[in-house]
Design a protein that fits this description.
The chain has about 280 residues and is α+β, with helices and mostly antiparallel strands. The chain is built from 10 helices and 7 strands. A 7-stranded antiparallel sheet has the order 1-2-3-5-6-7-4, sandwiched between helices.
Length: about 280
């Protein structure tokens, strides 16, 4: 009898304990946790902070050392070409003239007996040169400051033309105008083509150019031209323009045709303009 009442008493005490726990304030029985809203707020703040740091860091790095593409699109301002008669202009021209002969590929060609060296228009009378485009109108500091330096094989089937393009021959600032590149190709290809023709003269029939990479101003460039074939009065030639590292920037091919009246042309002046071995 006593054991029954003892069991009942224990059951009653357990029930009273459960009621006591349930009656406690909920704040005392709830374990604090981060709600989804709090987690989203923390995540968003971290994202904004990280993005801001990345943008500021990228801007600072870009300002100190801008990427190649940005440097070409937004070049630093530069002064205009100096006057050819000014001290600055003459000093600039003399420095380039000295530098062109020290270039590694030029030194190699100078020491190779299979090639000869020449300067187009150098032996031509000034009153004939003055109205030409590359040797007259564009021949000044900051443009085409010095005459091209040509190295050609003795049979004139190949030529290497080295020249300097200045800041004053740009389309987009800092990038050499595509029209000037076409002109340089035309003159370089013409030299190789015309010297292969019987009358040593000719006209451009077609000129096709593939522009690969923009050509930055204020640097030396190299144009290598080759005679592909000659068919009667037609000469087919090709060329590539590269920088001093050898990176190709543009390629071209052309057809030159010798006119039927070529026998009337002044062969002596043509040789002087082209810069032949026996000008």
């Amino acid at each position: 009898m006593t054991s029954i009442f003892k069991g009942a008493t224990r059951s009653s005490n357990s029930a009273n304990s459960i009621k006591s726990i349930n009656s406690l304030p909920r704040a005392l029985t709830t374990i604090p946790t981060n709600t989804p809203r709090q987690r989203r707020t923390i995540t968003t703040s971290a994202f904004i902070l990280g993005t801001s740091c990345a943008l500021i860091g990228g801007y600072a790095m870009g300002a100190l050392r801008p990427p190649h593409a940005l440097a070409m699109l937004y070049p630093a301002p530069a002064p205009g070409p100096p006057s050819p008669l000014s001290d600055a202009g003459q000093s600039h021209t003399l420095a380039l003239e000295k530098e062109i002969h020290q270039l590694a590929h030029v030194q190699a060609l100078k020491s190779d007996s299979d090639w000869y060296e020449s300067r187009p228009y150098a032996a031509m009378e000034q009153n004939r040169v003055i109205n030409t485009l590359t040797a007259g109108a564009l021949r000044s500091p900051g443009r085409l400051a010095i005459a091209p330096l040509v190295h050609a094989r003795h049979d004139d089937s190949e030529a290497v033309v080295t020249l300097h393009v200045g800041r004053g021959v740009c389309g987009h600032d800092g990038i050499v105008h595509g029209g000037l590149i076409a002109t340089l190709f035309d003159e370089s290809l013409a030299r190789t083509a015309l010297l292969s023709l019987p009358g040593k003269t000719g006209v451009t029939a077609t000129l096709n150019i593939s522009y690969r990479v923009p050509v930055k101003a204020d640097q030396f460039v190299v144009i290598r031209s080759t005679l592909e074939k000659r068919d009667g009065r037609k000469a087919f030639v090709k060329a590539e323009l590269s920088d001093l590292s050898g990176k190709a920037h543009a390629q071209a091919n052309a057809l030159f045709i010798e006119p039927r009246w070529s026998f009337l042309a002044d062969k002596k002046n043509i040789r002087k303009a082209l810069g032949t071995e026996k000008a």
